[in-house]
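Build the 3D complex.
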Amino acid sequence: MSMKAVVYKGPFEVAVEEVPLPTIQHPADVIVRITSSAICGSDLHMYEDRTAAKAGLRFGHENMGIVEELGSGVTVLKKGDRVVMPFNVACGSCLNCQTNKTAFCTNVNEGFAGGAYGYVAMGPYHGGQAERIRVPFADFNALVLPPGSEHEADFMMLADVFPTGYHGCILSGLKPGESIAVWGAGPVGLMAAYSARLMGAADIYVIDRVPERLALCKKFDGIPIDFSKGDAVDAILKMRGGKEVDRCVDAVGYQAVTQDGKTEQVNIVLNQMVRAVRACGGLGIPGLYVPTDPGASDEHAKLGQLMFPFGKFFEKGLSMGTGQANVKTYNRQLRDLIVAGIAKPSFIVSNEVGLSAAPDAYVKFQKRVEGYSKVILKP
Ligand SMILES: NC(=O)c1ccc[n+]([C@@H]2O[C@H](COP(=O)([O-])OP(=O)(O)OC[C@H]3O[C@@H](n4cnc5c(N)ncnc54)[C@H](O)[C@@H]3O)[C@@H](O)[C@H]2O)c1
Ligand SMILES: [Zn+2]
Ligand SMILES: [Zn+2]
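Done.
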């Protein structure tokens, strides 16, 4: 028995191929029939050959659908439940899981703290850009949604970008009434800025160079800063009469580019954040940094080492939080904000296409083509 899945073929190439249907491998597993699976900026790191991902990997860590088959040890989920899975795979029992750090589970990926679906080095879990997915430790990992099809695109955002953006704000230490600057108006950055609004931030600056992405700031009264027109920190300080912001979020990561939009500079956002934030402020860094990057342009970055103004960081008494988002720590509450009609994160969704259109969608998403800023695949 086979199904269709998005398979990584090599640099800048994915294909939709027939692969074996997933089966129950452990009593705690369920099989979910996928109704929506989103493409993510994190998939691009693999697609652009900036990771050790090998051909044959099945992509897709943002997954939702209907529970179709239950392992014998599943006690909470029922057949027919509508569910969304955190991109993290977690056991629910280890020290990190029991202290809400589900992104750093020590039982799901040998020799490593943290597992995910369809991602290089994150364990043996196939991605969900496919017709079905196997969900391990399913009672713990699957979040049950109201039945039906209402809010499908909003709930889809609970798999990764909405909780990840929210996590960025938490890492920064944001409090109501504070100001915040978010680097990157990709899905994660927009969700961080939107979360800041939900959390009661006052001024919210969003920095990017893609006009279509910056335009989405209007949805939550964010202040767009186009860094192709000049230094982002200068622009923010000028608008604020020289006053720094309370908090910063890096939703760009290690493939950050300079003003020309072409030249990568791995430390540019980190350096700008240290300049932009007030003394005793905080930096939240959900943007991805990697321990080795063979494709990097300088020798240090290849080893995951970067020039960082630690002296200034110390002098200002700053704090910093990093890492993968513990999606499960936030997804239940964020779901209920959607149900209550308070949050509507699907405003970032650009389009929905069938699974067979995935190769074309990857090409356009990678080129940041207008209309392809957050794509949901509908198998
Ligand atoms: N921590 C986590 O759990 C987690 C989860 C999901 C994604 N991520 C990471 O978050 C980052 C963002 O994800 P995304 O899906 O929004 O990616 P994306 O590629 O869609 O967006 C990144 C944006 O950053 C902009 N950018 C590039 N250089 C910049 C600079 N110098 N200043 C300001 N903006 C700049 C780009 O124009 C782009 O719009 C990625 O590194 C991704 O891997 C982390
Ligand atoms: Zn993602
Ligand atoms: Zn665990």
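The chain has a mean pLDDT of 97.
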